Amino acid sequence: MWQRSILIAMAIIGLFILPNFALSTSLTVAINLTDADGIGEQVGYITLEDTKYGLLITPNLSQLNPGIHGFHIHENPNCGSAKKESQIVPGLAAGGHYDPTKSKSHQGPYQDGHLGDLPPLFVTQDGTATTPVLAPRLRKTDVMGHSVVVHLLGDNFSDYPKPLGGGGARLACGVI
Ligand SMILES: [Cu+2]
Ligand SMILES: [Zn+2]
Question: Which three-class secondary structure state does DSSP give residue 108?
Fold first, then answer.
């Protein structure tokens, strides 16, 4: 009889633990440098995790230039190069910022523009990035099937004075 009670107790505990386990599973995305030939060296990874405050993105990256970097979810699950005005541009195959509502507006993570706009990535003097960022409008299911891009320069959450926050070149990228 006691064995049956233990089995029932384990089943009940399982009912509580399993859904939480499923919710807390994180997704790991490899990040590579971009180059004109396609995809360059891997410089680490990021992990994506749903929280009740939004999507938590934890980087574990190295070999990046110190400072603040524009960081976005881009439309296409492709980190390759593409041609623009007869120039081969690294990372261009990722397309534009993920924008399912067609806002056509770069406003950063806390407004109603591109859904793919993330808080910028912070890289320390030794070239590593480990500081997590939180994107309150996103969940893991939103970003799957897209890509994540790290830009050379920062992000002012505006299309002025430069488009897309002024991040410029696509430095590193990962397919989610
Ligand atoms: Cu971007
Ligand atoms: Zn944007």
Answer: coil
